[in-house]
Amino acid sequence: MKKIIVSLITFSLLAVSCSDFIEKEERGTQTLENYFQTAQECENYANELTRRLLIPNDWWTLVAPRVTNEMSTDDAWMGNTGQDSGAHRPSSQYIITPDNMGDMNSIYTAHFYTIQSANLGLEKMAASPLTEAQKNQYMGESLFVRAYCYYELVNLFGGVPVYTKSLGTGDLTLKRNSAAEVYAQIEADLKESAAKLETIPVNRQGRVNKWAAYALLARVSLFQEKWAEAKQYSNKVITEGPYALEADFLNIWNVNNHNGVESILEAQSSSVQDKSLGSMLPTLAGARGEDKKNFPSNDAADVLDGWGWCMPTSDLENAYLSENDVIRRRSTITKWGEAAYGDEVLNPTHKFSLNDNKSGRICRKYYIPIATRRSLDKKDGHLPLNIPLIRLAEMYLTRAEASYHTSGDALADINIIRARVKLDPKTGLSGPTLLRQIYKERRLELAFEGLRLYDIRREKDPTTGRPVIESLMGPNGTFVKYNLSSTDPYETTNLREPQDKGINFNPAKNLLWPIPQLEIDLSGGLITQNPGY
To answer: How do 361-363 and 311-312 pair as beta strands?
Structure first.
């Protein structure tokens, strides 16, 4: 099933105040003019903005394109070889065009829906009769949501239209801003968000707080090579924030450990049976073709049977093996026939359909344990797996990379991360060798957490000075060459997804995705296309 999402421009026409069309007094009817009058109304609005930013229970709008971005890297295949891959193929195989964008259309449009709504809410909240403390809370959360939308848009599409006021019918002449201007707005929103949320308690599960704003500031500073700022904000979160690394790496994605000590921001989920509030990610990326006969219980209640998209590559597995990184490898990848890590008793030989799975592997981070499956009468739409978007380990890795480019002990930070998974510390590394190790630790630590595509696009190869993705993808890319000469028994025997993954990558254009052609057409050509498309 494919949902058609109305474009930004069309939404803007619909979202303006009704007074643009007709003046009519309506008594007893809730409108934009009489909403935002109570703290509960403002909280409900901020909650809805946050939900629309995360939407863990809607597989198409944001979950699918975020997973597709993973498939566009060296970490993941599309994976499902038994169904149509039209939504994921354009990006993952680098054949994307403005008229054939797969599910990248939906994330572009959905974020502008949310930005328009955030702008409207911020205007109305500022004029509401709430106390300053109440305004600060809900406006601070809304500012973060707007900033996060723009953060994803600028990394996926480059410069996009920036607007901070709600649009009316006379405002449909938006042009693209530069990437630098988009980032400037992101930074401004996050700084204002942090300031407004300064005194708001942080122990409110599932809500945005000031530390999320500081952590995202650290990330966007890193992405812009603002090393001093990246170090400043990541250090602030590490040293002043109320977070700690989970003692057990596997516990980060534990269905029974929502909003754990390491979590700064995560999409919420629930297994409440009379509402579909669960995460769709374990279904979208769960093992396809499970059968009760492959479980010790021989019980159909143990079967989840996911859709099989976004399967780990053997190249990623080899990266873990090269470091003897058993804990992170098994917490990230389960190979066909191996025990599910942490669920060895009830799932000692996790098996699924190899005919429908490119790599013979699934992502362990997205896995729902057997005991949880048994507790649910309804599974699809009710899976209680929260999705971490920002966590403390990333801040250590951000500080390490920033320290490499400024001054500081980058090795100390990556060794803190390594110690958690019982790896020996790295010693004596410097120069390009150290930088490559920092990049590698980010890959091993944060695999399947939404950062790999952004990282390989922005990271510079210390030998060539070019983006790392250029050395991995394309006809001469190391990842492409590895796959073409691979002897992996799973990947090379299921060629319904081509083995030359990434061969179509073109550095002249594929460092960004194209702007949807529909948006260019509706703007009358005011919005221009990215180079090469």
So the answer is: unpaired
**Whole-model pTM?**
0.94
Question: Check: CATH 2.60.120.10 for 39-240+510-523?
Answer: no
- Percent helix, strand, coil in the chain, to 5, is 45, 5, 50
Nearest residue to 19 via CA among 132, 166, 117, 213: 166
Spatial CB neighbours of 88, under 8 Å, sequence gap ≥ 6: 64, 67, 68, 71, 78, 102, 103, 309
| DSSP tag of 128 | S
Residue ranges of the domains in the chain?
39-240+510-523
Nearest C-alpha neighbor of 285 from the set 467, 59, 511:
59
**Whole-angstrom Cα distance, residue 516 to residue 159?**
13
What is the DSSP code string of 240-295?
HSS----SSGGGGG-TT-TT-TTEEEEE-----TTS--S-SHHHHTSPSS--GGGS
Residue 450 has pLDDT above 90, yes or no: yes
DSSP-derived 3-state class of residue 389: strand
> Computed over its alpha carbons, how large is the radius of gyration of the chain?
23
- Counting other chains too, the contacts that 507-512 makes at CB distance below 8 Å and 24 or more residues apart are 507/466, 507/467, 507/469, 507/470, 507/474, 508/532, 509/533, 510/94, 510/96, 510/469, 510/473, 511/457, 511/467, 511/469, 512/156, 512/157, 512/158
Residues 6+ apart with CB under 8 A from 411: 400, 425, 426, 427, 429, 434
**DSSP states along 181-199:** HHHHHHHHHHHHHHHHTTT
**Helix axis angle, 132-157 relative to 179-196, nearest 10°?**
160
DSSP letter at 434 equals: H
Using a 10 angstrom Cβ sphere, with 0-12 exposed, 13-18 middle and 19 or more buried, the burial of residue 526 is: middle
**Helix residue ranges, H only, 357-430:** 370-374, 392-405, 410-420
Average pLDDT, the chain: 93
Identify residue 529 by its one-letter amino acid code: Q
Q: In which residue are the tokens 């607007």 written?
A: 163
Residue pair 490/469 in contact (Cβ under 8 Å)? The answer is no
Residue of 43, 7, 24, 26 whose CA lies nearest to 167:
7
Residue with tokens 């966007």: 220
pLDDT at 204 over 80: no
Angle 314-322/478-485 helices, nearest 10 degrees?
Answer: 100
Whether the CB-CB separation of 5 and 109 falls below 8 Å is answered with yes
Q: How sure is the predictor about 51, in pLDDT bands with cuts at 50, 70 and 90?
A: very high
Contact 328, 308 (CB under 8 A): no
Token pair 């901070």 in the structure block, residue: 164
| Rounded distance between C-alpha atoms, residue 60 and residue 42, angstroms | 27
Give the 3-state secondary structure of residue 472: helix
Residue 278 · residue 269 · CB < 8 Å: yes
Please report the pLDDT score of residue 28 as a whole number. 61
